[in-house]
Specification:
This protein has about 130 residues and is mostly helical. The chain has five helices and no strands. About 75% of the residues lie in helices and about 0% in strands. About 20% of the residues are buried.
Length: about 130
């Protein structure tokens, strides 16, 4: 049976879309796992950025990223999964990678992370849009 676009396969089974979701979700899952492994350091870094309740927010947002990444990779609960990743990236990027406030020796590193997260946010928004079609 064809979808609304005619005889093309549904995006869920389209090989490029599947590969894209697996790569994107897999890389985000790796980032979430690294966050869990270095939780104390992640919390300390968030506290250095004056994030209130970092001891609660860092594990919660790492969990949100992990669940969202798996949901994207498997395309399960795509609205919730993509929304979680968009929310994570939209919140974390300007608060944790505020290169404009970084000391000169850290400015380039923070800018690199900001740009990387911005690109991932763009991809997450594209998946978010697709989840509602």
């Amino acid at each position: 049976m064809s979808d609304r676009r005619g005889s093309k396969p549904a995006a869920k089974h389209d090989p490029p879309a599947l590969l894209g979701r697996l790569l994107f979700g897999g890389m985000l899952l790796a980032a979430a796992i690294n966050s869990f492994r270095g939780m104390e350091g992640q919390i300390a870094y968030a506290e250095s950025k004056e994030i209130k309740h970092a001891d609660l927010l860092v594990p919660a947002t790492s969990g949100m990223l992990a669940l969202g990444s798996v949901g994207i990779a498997l395309w399960r609960f795509p609205k919730l999964a993509t929304g979680a990743v968009v929310t994570f990236l939209a919140g974390v990027t300007p608060t944790m990678h505020d290169f404009w406030n970084a000391p000169d020796e850290q400015k380039q590193n923070e800018l690199n992370h900001f740009i990387k997260n911005g690109a991932m946010l763009g991809a997450a928004l594209a998946f978010f849009h697709r989840a509602f079609k």
